[in-house]
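My main concern about presentation is that the manuscript never shows what a single data entry looks like. For the editor and my fellow referees, an illustration may be useful. For illustration, here is how one protein appears when written out as sequence plus structure tokens:

***
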Amino acid sequence: MVTIDCHIHLGLMPSQVPEWWLKEQFQGWAGSIDAEAIIAGLDDAGIEVGLVQGGDIRRTTWDPRHPDERNVLTPNDFTASEIAKYPDRLYGVIGFDPLRDIRWAVDEIERCVEELDFRLLKLIPTYHHYAADDPRLDPLYEKCLELDLPVMIHTGWTRTINAPMEYQRPVQLDRIGREFRDLVVIVAHLGHPWVDEGIAVVAKHPNFYCEFAGWSAYGPELVYESLSKLKMYGAHRKVLYGSDNSDTKALYEDANRIAVERDGEPVLDDEEMALLLGGTAARLCRIPA
């Protein structure tokens, strides 16, 4: 079964990503991420396929110490040009700021799917200063339903200072699940630190899934506890592998080790681990398994 990382960022510094933002977001690290760097990271992690996203947070992301550097934009066409260097290994994720122009955003979804063969839409509410259930976004969800396109939605905390925490809660996805029942929604980051809320919405809605991107900083203990809670709700087969540009495979191996030590059996069996590492993402995003 193919292995897939569903959460990889792309961007060149400083033309697409200013140094000040990378340092704010990643506490000192700064550097460009192109297709070659992504493939090297996938190879190091032993992952075969990556879903790659750009994005646009120019409207809302700024630093008063760098007033002229608001160019946080990696366009979808650049993403397409990079993934074209590695066909069958890299697939595109649509990234944009929908509130710049909702009608344009709907058309851009259609263009990216039909012309560029992108496989996923990524929304980042806290970075764009809206709630995920804002009715202004409903045309996007309707277009994704029409195109059978999954939507990944950022939930949870971020170091970006201009990202309002009021737009980070997983509970804001509940209306989407109620009113767009056939829409596939991937709860990015499982809403950390509102993890129980994330687990609740994933368990409640049949077409909701989740991933643990960025959790390498939190350690395997929290992964074990969260997988155990998902399993208690019968939702542990709805987890995808996402790295946030870091090798996090060991988190799941260590979570299973902790489960064996405490419970006498792994929290994920071999089949469930294979689904997490790529099987479910392949099915949702139409990637050859």
Summary: The longest helix spans residues 270-285.
